[in-house]
């Protein structure tokens, strides 16, 4: 596995800052996005989404993977300062890796620093517009900021990709809309 990772890293184009471009998993992800739209229930959709996380969490190289993994372990221990430190380093090293921003947004969301989470969610979505975690994260962050109408728009975008998201319970009609 490590040899395969090392060979992949050597073959990947390297950005000026030293981080190779993030792996392109669109060939593997496209069928998963299609499967979400026809998933018969929430459990099936969750299994599909779990497979997607395996691709999103696949960092560009061994160094960035170590940063991401360490940040996620720190987050799991509620060591948010360590997690943020690792994620700050990760996005500085790999500024074109969406999951670094998404995870930093999640840590800030858990810290209830919603204003800090929002720009990272926007950046993650610039890099990966179909990132369901970032889309639903943006919706709940906007709800937390009291920006209901924007949150509903973000939630609709997330539900257009995965209609089984648990956040669907937050869906309300927009002005002039019937659900």
TrEMBL record:
Superkingdom of the organism of origin: Bacteria
Keywords on record: Repeat, TPR repeat
Gene3D superfamilies: Tetratricopeptide repeat domain (1.25.40.10)
Protein name, entry field: TPR domain protein
Species annotation: Mameliella alba
Organism lineage string: Bacteria, Pseudomonadati, Pseudomonadota, Alphaproteobacteria, Rhodobacterales
